[in-house]
Amino acid sequence: MVADREIEKVEESNEELVYDITAFLPGKHEExxxxxxxxxxxxxxxNGNVIxxxxxxxxxxxxxxxxxDCTKRIPKGRGRQPEEKFxxxxxxxxxxxxxxxxxxxxxxxxxNAYKSPSALEVxxxxxxxxxxxxxxxxxxxxxxxxxxEIDDEAESIELAKN
Length: 162
Hints:
By secondary structure, the chain is α+β, with helices and mostly antiparallel strands. The chain has a single domain, classed as rbstp2171, CATH 3.30.2220.30. 46% of the residues lie in helices and 12% in strands. It has seven helices and five strands; from the N terminus they run αββαββαβαααα. It has helices at 2-16, 60-69, 88-99, 108-113, 119-126, 130-143, 152-161; strands at residues 34-37, 53-56, 71-74, 83-86, 100-102. The strands form two sheets. Strands 1-2-5 form a three-stranded antiparallel β-sheet. The longest helix has 15 residues, at 2-16. The model has no long low-confidence stretch (mean pLDDT 84). This is Lin1280 protein. InterPro entries: XkdN-like (IPR014986), XkdN-like_sf (IPR038559).
């Protein structure tokens, strides 16, 4: 069969490749990705320079916990499977909050200044301009690798189109 011959060719070509597994061993890759981004022109230091927020990625385990926290099970009735509803806005906000190293929205100083028990409420008050809030969400997503282009081939195709 033609399909069998094609599979054999793929297997033969894969045997020729040598993979280096050591890049995946602990300590051989970056555990934390640090990203600095200005999310607003409204926040400036004493010299008038725009203050950059600092972000770090969360772990895959923590990401899964956040997903679970943002998923509600809604009963559908007797004998029927409950429906799961995922709150993506809440998830993005919590991911941004967890990823933000500076400013620390959970600091006592900010919580007291904004008279809020919730770090997320503080973040929403600090970033009260919708564009600032969305820039914050976007920067946190980038710090967690959601905006990364990892496919060199896709980039080459895009360049070729231009």
